[in-house]
Amino acid sequence: MLRQHRPTADLVKQLLSRDSRVAGDDFVESALLCWCRGGRAEEERLGELVGALLTQRCCHTSPNKRKRGAGGGGASTAAASREQPTCERILSHLDRLSTHFNV
Predict the structure, then answer these.
(1) Per residue, what are the HEC states of 13-76?
(2) Rounded to whole angstroms, how far apart are CA atoms 65 and 97?
(3) Residue of 7, 18, 82 whose CA lies nearest to 51
(4) Would the N or C end of the chain have less CB density within 10 A of its end CB?
(5) How far apart are CA 39 and CA 49, in angstroms?
(6) Is 90 exceeded by the pLDDT of residue 67?
(7) Phi, psi of 44 (to 5 degrees)
(8) What does DSSP assign to residue 6?
(9) What is the pTM of this model?
């Protein structure tokens, strides 16, 4: 099914939000590998999307950056943070991709 779709920012973000520590769950890595083997254009697009996510996540979590709205977020803030992949999670998926699939 994923072969029929090109990688989009939202789809890649949702995939990379999945927990990478679940033993035997190679879904994310399989999807990324499928797109990498889909052709040069899809590989480049995927690289741009992952790079943009990493830049966004790493710059967003800068310790020097002032945090706004502390204490007023409630459940909506918690839900939004669960949907956003962390730098560690993104890099963990990329590490699994390179080690388990010899990419």
Answers:
(1) HHHHCCCCCCCCCCHHHHHHHHHHCCCHHHHHHHHHHHHHHHHHHHHHCCCCCCCCCCCCCHHH
(2) 31
(3) 7
(4) N
(5) 16
(6) no
(7) -65, -40
(8) -
(9) 0.72
